[in-house]
Amino acid sequence: MRRSKIKELLGGKQAGDEVLVQGWVKTRRSSKNVAFVQISDGSTLADLQVVVGESLPAYQIVDSLNTGCSVSVTGTLAESLGKGQRYEVQATSIEVLGQADPETYPLQKKRHTPEFLREIAHLRPRTNTFGAMARIRNQMSQSIHGFFQSRGYLFIQAPMITASDAEGAGEMFRVTTLDLDNLPLKEGAVNNEEDFFGKPAFLTVSGQLEAEIFALGLSDVYTFGPTFRAENSNTSRHLAEFWMVEPEVAFCDLEGLAELSEDFLKHIFSQVLENCGEDMEFFNRWYDNKAISTLEGIVNSNFERLTYTEAVDILIKSAESFEFPVSWGLDLQSEHERYLTEKRVGRPVIVTDYPMEIKAFYMRQNDDGKTVRALDVLVPRIGEIIGGSQREERGDVLLERLRQAGLPEEAYWWYLDLRKYGTVPHSGFGLGFERTVQFVTGVPNIRDVIPFPRTPKNAEF
Ligand code: ATP
Ligand code: MN
Predict the structure, then answer these.
(1) pTM over 0.90
(2) Any residues with CB less than 8 A from the CB of 331 and at least 6 apart, and which?
């Protein structure tokens, strides 16, 4: 018999059908002449109830069906009389595939703290939270590709290793094959010529520059992959390895980019609402009782637009006492971002035109000589989830900005070339995938929305 996943069984089969189900035991209840075994297989949040009557040979082994053990069950699908489920399986046979010793299996209780679950990251996919998280991540990944594919964007794979030593090496992880205990020296310093690439190499912090290369030939492209930051920020919103979505769009200005970011987020959120109802109800119940209504609100409203200058005015005039200072020229901290989106507007806010000094050299300079065409999308609870800009497409201005920033222009020869040969206005942004999953689910810590979190001093699994 072909195996049925619990999802298809609860959705597409009929009472009376013979079925084969395989999964892991969540709980077991036995009474005098019947046992109820809840099993899950990851296909859906709902457990399947397996009923084992005492007349069955399988009834002899129900006492060994411990939480966590894996089983193969055959039986008949039947309408369930119990509440909370439409169908159950009346078992005809049960085989234990792998035992889980109840003395040592760590997932005995119904609820465990997120901190504890992080220590057993090899078992946490068996919890409801991680199942729901994985299914929502999966849906969101699909929606991201779906959104861009339906608009004719090409998915470009940016390299993870970059040998350009110019991206702000302070926050980058170095990739090397040099023997750290026996470094080759040349004139008293490390001889990088002996390293694998003949020069220092790093893990990428962003696929933007590579995406720009492809956009300036193929028009509309996006990357979606892991990025790495060696920043030592131990916050609930920062990981050392996280996934980023980076569209890069030729012939597009900042206004076009703002529209794109709004359409994009709405698309992801509405698809999650449409396809992950059960999982969202779970997060709504256990993590944030506004998770669903927040997403619905966003899908049905327009994002607010503010310039950085307007945002700073609002913050200064507000009666809030902030931990960090607010004044024109300083970057917005997450408390400021949250005030704007949560208290002031109650919806996502797109802030544009930041001071030049606090933004990257490649952002297009405004005519005021003070601000650049930058854009951040702020959402309640999280603050920034998207950062982007219209890019400086004028070669002379870009060169000037590189020099001002003290960056080595030789290292950017190819980036400058793109402005020399057939330059066009273009724009792009980066969406932090895990921050978006955090926002969608209401899970407070970013370590709990990625399968294997990488943070300072932590890479066990
Ligand atoms: P922040 O100021 O919050 O540290 P950033 O300005 O450094 O973020 P960008 O370089 O603009 O971030 O990156 C684009 C997006 O990537 C951000 O809007 C955010 O959603 C996400 N992001 C940035 N750093 C991290 C991180 N360490 N962990 C998870 N997501 C991140
Ligand atoms: Mn940013």
Answers:
(1) yes
(2) 354, 358
